[in-house]
Amino acid sequence: MRRPSRIRSFVIRGRITPAQKEALERHWAGFGIDYSPQPLNLDQIFRRVAPKILDVGSGMGDCTAALAGRHRENDYLAVEVHRPGVGSLIRHALRMRLSNVRIICHDVMDVLRDQLPERSLDEIYVFFPDPWPKKRHHKRRLVNARFLDLLVPCMKDNARLFLATDIAELAHDMLSACDSHAGLVNLAGGGNFAPRPAWRPATKFEQRGERGNQPAWDLCFARTGDMSG
Q1: How many Å apart are CA 74 and CA 112, to the nearest integer?
Q2: Rounded to 5, what percent of the chain is helix, strand, coil?
Q3: Which of 15, 23, 186, 227 could bridge 90 with an S-S bond, Cβ 3.0-4.6 Å?
């Protein structure tokens, strides 16, 4: 009997530009990590011991590159399924001469389950995930109990999970999912949103929302047991 297909939080869309395609083809070996159901040694991949940050759904790479450029003491692992975005991030990394960025072009659910070791991450960013606004599509939303069940074991005891969206209904949905997870504690207090982190770059998508009077909602969680700010 055929097993039902897994509900995914994404749909592959968008055309890749010649420049993005060239960056992928010429420089994937330097920045890319192929998906394989084997745990990664992140210190070996980045060739040093440093804080490891997972950027889930890095989009066109603007935010990842900006943070990696400002904080070269950190290592950034971006996971993005859209090849145009991956190519764009590689171009940013080349232009900025970033050695602290690596990219996996694959479903983050598989990456969390198969590739990221337990207690390997210091921070996780989930910024402006696809809102899937239609009610019949809510099951496709990324941040849910299943996602968190895979993510939390990968977090170090002092790890932080930062989330943001400019869709109010999705913001409350993510807040409820994270507040309900036994492995996480809301650093703003249960049921509360967090102040916007001063360090979080505003993406082009977010700036368009602000011009349309659609401000962002931020959340900040830590692995249970860490109650400090």
Answers
A1: 20
A2: 40, 20, 45
A3: 23
For the chain, how many residues are written? 229
Q: Which residues are catalytic?
A: 130
Q: How far apart are CA 65 and CA 101, in angstroms?
A: 8
36-223 to CATH, choices 3.30.70.260, 3.40.50.150, 3.40.50.1000, 3.10.450.50: 3.40.50.150
How far is Cα 106 from Cα 103, in angstroms, rounded to an integer?
A: 9
CB atoms inside a 10 Å sphere around CB 172: 14
Count of CB atoms situated within 10 Å of the CB of 87: 27
Other CB atoms within a 10 A radius of the CB of residue 10 amount to 16
Kindly report the three-state secondary structure assignment for every residue of 152-205: HHHEEEEEEEEEEECCHHHHHHHHHHHHCCCCEEECCCCCCCECCCCCCCCCHH
Q: Burial level of 147, CB count in 10 A (0-12/13-18/19+)?
A: buried
229 residues of the chain, pLDDT tens digit each = 344 455 544 345 668 899 999 999 999 999 999 999 999 999 999 999 999 999 999 999 999 999 999 999 999 999 999 999 999 999 999 999 999 999 999 999 999 999 999 999 999 999 999 874 546 545 769 999 999 999 999 999 989 999 999 999 999 999 999 999 999 999 999 999 999 999 999 877 667 655 556 789 999 999 986 444 4
Domain ranges of the chain: 36-223
What tokens were used for 70?
A: 């400002």
